[in-house]
Design brief:
The chain is built from nine helices and 15 strands. With 328 residues, it is α+β, with helices and mostly antiparallel strands. The termini are far apart. Its EC number is 6.3.4.15.
């Protein structure tokens, strides 16, 4: 671990507190000049560090995503690699490019301050402006020889993991799940989740799963095409995105370890915004109109039709929910 990483570790453990240069030098067994150079290097990387004669240094955080900060904030509970960028076309594309030349055995996270071509289901644009949201993709290695992943359970499980962290971070807000992959607040979409699989061509099976997550944290001005539907969680609040990212990575991996058990489904059902409501479900070029009556044990949406029959759908998109004051 280099001087910058060592300094960062100490600063994060003593955030907002003054630490003298002599204390830092003694702790790291290096010169005061090396401390000064390390601090200067951190500042060039965007870390905000206040300095004052007789007091020393005080770490105030950073407004950009930083892999080292996120890794340390996971407190050793995320064992994979973490990569960050100030701007990228899409973290999903970044993850796919990585997989074209790597075969990871541990999870790998890709995060960006901005996406210029972020996308969601059906390739629709996901608006991802600089530093007002959290945009990341997580590669989850999957053994090609094992059973095909239960995508319905994985996506609903990830939604619950993200929802738990959002509720802890923003306790004054209510979040709900729009089957299968969106999180809503006050009738507006604040988070989208996309699950994609890369194929092992020789065995025609899934070699890795890529979960993409986009969260609107403080974005105010949305493009006209999504302005009616999209919303932000806390436009007026300063949010530590590195800390939030660390919490999300840990929470997702905790669910991933047992997602096929479906233990989280009661929680998903309890906060579903579609259950007990008439919906329109689009499946390819077809659509189904009925009342959402359950989320089954595979994460599928169970619709009851006008004639009283029921059917479970494991894929599709809810394009309309009969919910007052909400645009689907």
């Amino acid at each position: 671990m280099g001087t910058k990483d060592e300094l960062l570790k100490i600063f994060l453990l003593n955030e907002q507190q003054w630490i003298s240069g002599s204390q830092l030098a003694e702790r790291l067994k290096i010169s005061r000049e090396s401390i000064w150079k390390g601090v200067a290097a951190m500042r060039r990387q965007g870390h905000q560090i206040e300095s004052q004669r007789a007091l020393g240094y005080r770490y105030l955080g950073t407004d950009h995503l930083d892999a080292a900060v996120i890794k340390m904030q996971t407190r050793g509970e995320f064992n994979g690699e973490i990569h960050t960028a100030s701007s990228i076309d899409s973290t999903q594309n970044w993850a796919k490019q990585y997989l074209s030349s790597h075969q990871p055995s541990q999870p790998v996270a890709f995060l960006a301050d901005q996406q210029t071509a972020g996308y969601g289901r059906r390739g629709r644009q996901f608006y991802s402006p600089q530093k007002t949201g959290l945009y990341f993709s997580l590669v989850l290695p999957h053994n090609p020889m094992s059973a095909l992943p239960k995508i319905g359970l994985l996506t609903t499980g990830v939604a619950v993991a993200v929802g738990r962290v959002l509720k802890q971070t923003f306790p004054d807000h209510d979040f709900s799940y729009k089957w299968v992959n969106d999180i809503y607040m006050n009738g507006h979409k604040v988070c989208g989740i996309l699950t994609e699989a890369t194929l092992e061509l020789e065995s025609a099976s899934s070699a890795a799963l890529i979960v993409g997550i986009g969260i609107n944290l403080s974005t105010v001005d949305f493009p006209a095409a999504v302005a009616q539907k999209a919303g932000s969680i806390a436009p007026e609040q300063t949010i530590d995105r590195n800390q939030l990212a660390a919490r999300l990575l840990v929470a997702i991996m905790n669910v991933y370890g047992e997602y096929d058990s479906g233990k989280f489904l009661p929680e998903y059902r309890a906060h579903s915004m579609v259950l007990k409501r008439p919906v329109v479900l689009k499946i390819g070029n077809d659509k189904a109109v009925g009342k959402a009556v359950d989320i089954d044990d595979q994460g599928g949406l169970v619709l009851e039709f006008a004639d009283g029959t029921k059917k479970s759908f494991i894929s599709g998109e809810v394009t309309k929910v009969d919910l007052p004051g909400m645009t689907s």
